[in-house]
Amino acid sequence: MRRGRFHIYAYKYWVRIDPYRMGTHLAIKILLLEDDKLFNETLQDFLEEEGFILDTVLDPYSALDLTYENRYDLYLFDVNLPYENGFELLEKLRYAGDMTPTIFITSRDDKASLTQGFTQGGDDYLTKPVDLDELLLRVNAILRRQSRSQMVKIGIYTFDSISKILYENDMPLELTQKASELLLVLLEGQGKVVQLEQIKERLWSSSEMASDGSLRVYITQLKKYFPTQIHNIRGVGYQMSFDA
């Protein structure tokens, strides 16, 4: 079973902070599935110029493979595709627990297709020809909704679980990408012990070699900000406590 995106609970209280206040879409990663190569490249160029990180594919099988290997903040799926359509692909992902926000981009404009797109778990639906400015507005709207439901306050710090940036008084703190991902994994544990195997699966892709030494380095980075809240359960995993 594919791992899914977990809901993040605030252990102190919810906060509303705009993740775009830094003037760019930091570390927002999008998977684009569009079988028209020219249109695929057009969307990629436009979104990368807007500061997003893009992985692009031309068929649903390649898209599915990438969802197993990477963690994305947003999917942009065409509907009319070779082998299977975008609705069927998203149905598989939702069944496997992947709740990544998804926008369908399609030439279908009939009510039945619109209904199917939302029924299968789509978050928005854009018909071709696509106005790129409208696409950007819709992408930003979805990411803002995600941000507002996934900002967590931990003591004096605020963690943006989409951009994976830790803040103190609205100022970003120094934290490597994998240390930030580790913090997210520990938060998702909701105070429970997170198994070493689960941590390594999240921090390293299938093509990378997991390292116990590197993991200890990332833990040390986090303990700089949370010296008493991260606990090593020897031989089992790590736990983050949230006692007042």
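Next protein, fold it too.
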Amino acid sequence: MGPSQIEKKGALGRELAQIRFGQLYRDQGRAILAYALRRVEGPEDAADVVAETFLVAWRRLDEVPSDARARLWLFGVARRVIANRHRAERRRTRLGERLAESLRTELATQPAPAGEAAEVMRAMGGLGDDDRELLLLVAWEELSPGQAAKVLGISSLAARSRLHRARRRLRDLLEQRESAGSRGPELDMEEAR
């Protein structure tokens, strides 16, 4: 009795289906888990296979044999679930490779930052990840502080406050680099002695 028939039979049908499904899981859950563990990369993937297999069993409960053939039916479902996961992984991998190649080609045509832009990028390297991300969202992606806040999952007020502090830290880093650069050669000669 599957979910479609359960709806027609009401609460009693639903309860009987839940009992049957629970028994099916208790009887066959470990076998399906063992099957999946031997065929996928890790225990988390195996648990996902078991969950998907029993989801199919719940949806098609009226098609699941009620005798010893239920195990074979579940193995067949698990086999198809694993095959679908492998196909999806191959598609993701191929797509990732195409995107990576496209990006490599696009990046090869982009000039590297020079002059002041390069100096700002080097200074940005001295900022924390959160400061750097917020500054990049606002400056390069041209988002408002409120929009950046949504991307970062913080309030607009927090974004404005963090942005102010991040700009101040970046300004301090740039000033430090500038003052270190203006003393450069003389200091290097003295240090060498």
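About the second fold: The longest helix spans residues 69-109.
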